[in-house]
Design goal:
It contains 2 helices and 40 strands. The strands form 3 sheets. The protein has a 32-stranded parallel beta sheet that branches. Strand 39 and strand 40 form a beta hairpin. The chain is elongated and about 80 Å long.
């Protein structure tokens, strides 16, 4: 599957000049804090059938509690290219410092380009407790947090049918989900899409035809104690969709991850920071842990990936591939890694390894790196921390390899560390 499908899904533009809150909102139920500060709605069913209209719109610092409501957007797609950011065609939108509490009920979108819940702007928040969010067409998101909008979800169920959808989308906002369940069924429909901050704890979700996550420039995804399955071309895509390379971040701890196609992580046109904490279990059909390379985004010749991957007390397995305009720094801290690095012998790739005294590398094939550093003297570390019958080639001219003395060294298991000019 070509990665360019991403450019169709949920386009994010992190630095849009116009504010999302200048939209002229229309709604079936308009909850204005200037009219009534605190409002309560319960046990009812309402809908919207018009384009660029919300079922419920909350604004002007209203405090709104919605209990066991059934909200349906049944007709009225939009031609607004910024509909994710404006929330103008969402089922429910909150702006201008409003506070929502949603208890149970259903938020349902039955049309294209209609998000479930959109929360926009600093001081605007939503708490979603249980209930269900359903998407039945295309190019939509279950929950959007825009420009410092903040959404928390607890025990919510997502049913996401159709292509180019996602349960969670952030563009400068924040989403925190716990004990959430659900699935996406279409192509290019990741579980997480972020150019803001997203965290998930104790969630169980499956992307039936897509990646687990797309992490765009400025995106920060923190996953702790989840069970997640992806069936796209990789597990986590880290990239910058614009011409300029931003920084994307991924933090994993105590997760059970299943990736049924491609590498666990693919990084393109980005500066990526990846942190593995202890307790993750990863099931992959591919032998690749990480691929860092150029792709279709960004300026040709400058659109590789610079990746820093740190593993803390976590066992990792899989090959690492780096193209000529990309780089990888791997820090192992009380961790073990099994795999081959740069097995294609790309001479321009920059790859650095730093191992503390409690870490090890089990070689599964010949590897070509720029440098390798240890806490202990190199002669002791090589026999204890590097294992296998294969050869590691290092750059003897790189200052970081000064401790190796430009010499060949033996590795435990019959392998060798060999200098290359």
């Amino acid at each position: 599957m070509r990665i360019r499908l991403l450019t169709i899904l949920l386009p994010l533009v992190p630095a849009i000049a116009a504010s999302a809150q200048v939209a002229d909102y229309q709604a079936t139920l308009y909850c204005d804090g200037n009219v009534q500060k605190e409002q309560y709605r319960s046990h009812n069913s309402i809908e919207s059938v018009r384009s660029n209209e919300n079922v419920i719109h909350a604004c002007n610092n209203v405090y709104l509690i919605v209990t066991e409501y059934r909200l349906n957007k049944t007709a009225g797609s939009t031609f607004d290219p910024e509909y994710h950011r404006s929330g103008i065609n969402s089922v429910m939108t909150a702006t201008t410092g409003s506070e929502l509490v949603i208890e149970g009920g259903e938020i349902c979108s039955h049309i294209d380009k209609s998000d479930g819940l959109t929360v926009i702007g600093s001081g605007t928040t939503a708490k979603v407790n249980e209930g269900e969010i359903r998407l039945h067409r295309t190019n939509s998101a279950g929950v959007c947090a825009i420009d410092s909008g903040y959404v928390t979800l607890d025990g919510t169920v997502f049913t996401v049918n159709g292509s180019f959808n996602t349960p969670f989308l952030t563009d400068g906002g924040k989403i925190a989900a716990s004990m959430t369940t659900g699935s996406t069924t279409g192509i290019s429909s990741p579980l997480f899409r972020t150019a803001g901050t997203q965290s998930a704890t104790g969630c169980e979700m499956t992307a039936e035809k897509s990646n687990i996550a797309y992490i765009d420039a400025g995106g920060n995804l923190i996953l702790d104690g989840n069970k997640l399955t992806g069936n796209g071309y990789c597990g986590f895509q880290m990239f910058s969709s614009g011409s300029e390379r931003g920084c994307s971040r991924l933090e994993l701890s105590k997760n059970k991850l299943s990736v049924n196609e491609g590498p666990l992580i693919m990084a393109c046109n980005t500066k990526a920071e990846i942190l593995f904490r202890s307790g993750n279990t990863v099931s992959m059909r591919s032998k690749d842990l990480l691929i860092a390379k150029a792709d279709e985004w960004g300026e040709k010749g400058r659109n590789g990936a610079d990746v820093t991957i740190t593993s803390e007390k976590q066992n990792m397995r899989g090959n690492i591939t780096v193209d000529s305009i990309s780089s990888v720094v791997m820090n192992l801290r009380g961790a073990s890694y099994a795999g081959a690095i740069n097995a294609d012998a790309n001479p321009c790739a920059v790859i650095r390894l730093v191992l503390d005294r409690n870490s090890s590398w089990q070689l599964t094939g010949d590897s070509y790196i720029t440098s390798i550093q240890f806490d202990e003297p190199a002669d002791k570390a090589l026999l204890k921390q590097l294992k296998g019958k294969f050869t590691v080639y290092y750059d003897s001219n790189d200052p970081a390899n000064a401790a190796l003395g430009g010499m060949e060294h033996a590795i435990s298991g019959g392998g060798r560390l060999v200098p290359r000019q």
